[in-house]
Amino acid sequence: MNRLLVVDDEMNIRKVIREYAEFNDFLVDEAADGEQAVEMAYNNDYDIIVMDIMMPKLDGYSACREIRKSKNTPVILLSARSEEYDKLFGFELGIDDYVIKPFSPKELMARINAVIARSRAMNARAAAAASASASEEKEQSLNFEGLHIDKAGRSVTVDGEKAELTPKEYELLCYLAEHKGIALSREQLLEDIWGYDFYGDDRTIDTHIKNLRNHLGPYRDHIITLRGVGYKFEF
């Protein structure tokens, strides 16, 4: 049974989400502010967190940042703010989706299920890579001078220093490197990395590429922007 943490300072919103989630066989916990959410996320293993942005004590952005220090639980942010900046800032923090208030509870549940499915597929791929033999691990590493991608360990080093990438940044770099020299459209990247059911738009790719480049130091320019198309990895 899936376990959900709902975080919102409005009791009525928590109640609505709880009712729909429990109808869909979820176990639901509630938090009324960001600090409580961080504590509960530390002490429990949730399949997903649905969290408001504007809350007392600690806002949703800050709470998400704190949770990400120890847990990789999928997060959907709720907000009455529909500006592009707010959405992009959330995706830069590593959230999995952004829902604007007022929202349809049925649509929110569809998004919750889609995010959980993507997260489990990613975790399954990571578990399979971790169980590979030593020889397979060697075959699963990609090396470009001082840029080393360890696919089995899902880690990246730049001139010997570990690069702190989010899961999606790692997947994006790995995908680009595996398709070295091939022009990849934003639509293709969204489809193959985020999945068919992703509700975002192709600006999500641009944001992740910008963050990824910042982590690659002297190798940032090997991710080439193809105007009007997408991106290409060249080395």
Task: Please explain how this structure is put together.
InterPro entries: CheY-like_superfamily, OmpR/PhoB-type_DNA-bd, Sig_transdc_resp-reg_C-effctor, Sig_transdc_resp-reg_receiver, WalR-like, WH-like_DNA-bd_sf. Keywords: DNA-binding, Phosphoprotein, Transcription, Transcription regulation, Two-component regulatory system. By secondary structure, the chain is α/β, with parallel strands linked by helices. It is 46% helix and 20% strand. It has helices at residues 11-23, 34-43, 60-68, 84-92, 105-130, 134-139, 167-178, 186-194, 203-216, and strands at 3-7, 27-31, 48-52, 75-79, 97-100, 141-144, 147-150, 155-158, 161-162, 184-185, 223-226, 230-233. The strands form three sheets. Strands 2-1-3-4-5 form a five-stranded parallel sheet, with helices on both faces. The protein has a four-stranded antiparallel sheet with strand order 6-7-8-9. It has a three-stranded antiparallel sheet with strand order 10-12-11. Helix 2 runs parallel beside helix 3 (60-68).
The major beta sheet can be summarized as: 5 strands, parallel
Tell me the strand percentage band. 15-25%
Placed side by side, the strands forming the largest sheet appear as: 2-1-3-4-5
Q: What's the overall geometry?
A: elongated
The count of helical stretches stands at 9
Q: Helical content, roughly?
A: 40-55%
InterPro entries: CheY-like_superfamily (IPR011006), OmpR/PhoB-type_DNA-bd (IPR001867), Sig_transdc_resp-reg_C-effctor (IPR016032), Sig_transdc_resp-reg_receiver (IPR001789), WalR-like (IPR039420), WH-like_DNA-bd_sf (IPR036388)
Protein name: Stage 0 sporulation protein A homolog
Keywords: DNA-binding, Phosphoprotein, Transcription, Transcription regulation, Two-component regulatory system
DNA-binding region: 139-235
